[in-house]
Amino acid sequence: MCCTVLWADLVAVVTLPAEIDITNADAIREELLSVINQGAETMIVDLSKARFCDSAGVSALVRAFRRATSSGTKMRLVVAGPAVERVLTLTGVDRLMEIYPNVDAALGSPGSANGGG
């Protein structure tokens, strides 16, 4: 298992590993899709421990986001590391998905994404 999943009602917090790359991106994608398939209303993908994310990791996130959107699941990212934040900015993922500085913020009000606007 690549990730830790904690459920609170219909909200799932999925904590990803420190390194997200081609060696584990497929397993991460499958885990995220599994959470969506289990009926999560909101899925918070916690990348706060991640120090590295390559294109395979970005692809896994985008594919999960597409499935979440088509399934009616809200998907939010928690990003704390500058290297991961930079990759998401360069690839445009920061404009596609809501990004929060910590899990508490992601669980809070919907208007607090990206520092409040």
Describe the structure.
The protein is of the alpha/beta class and 117 residues long. The chain has one domain (4-105): STAS domain (Transcription Regulator spoIIAA). It is built from 5 helices and 7 strands, in the order βββαββαβααβα. Strand 1 (4-8) and strand 2 (11-15) form a beta hairpin. It is globular.
How many angstroms does the end-to-end distance come to?
35 Å
- Uncertain runs: none
Average pLDDT level? 93
Q: CATH superfamily name?
A: STAS domain
Basic shape: globular
Rounded Rg: 13 Å
Q: Please name the CATH topology.
A: Transcription Regulator spoIIAA
Q: Please bin the fraction of helical residues.
A: 40-55%
Tags for this model:
5-stranded mixed sheet; Transcription Regulator spoIIAA; 5 helices; 117 residues; 41% helix
Summarize the structure.
By secondary structure, this protein is of the alpha/beta class.
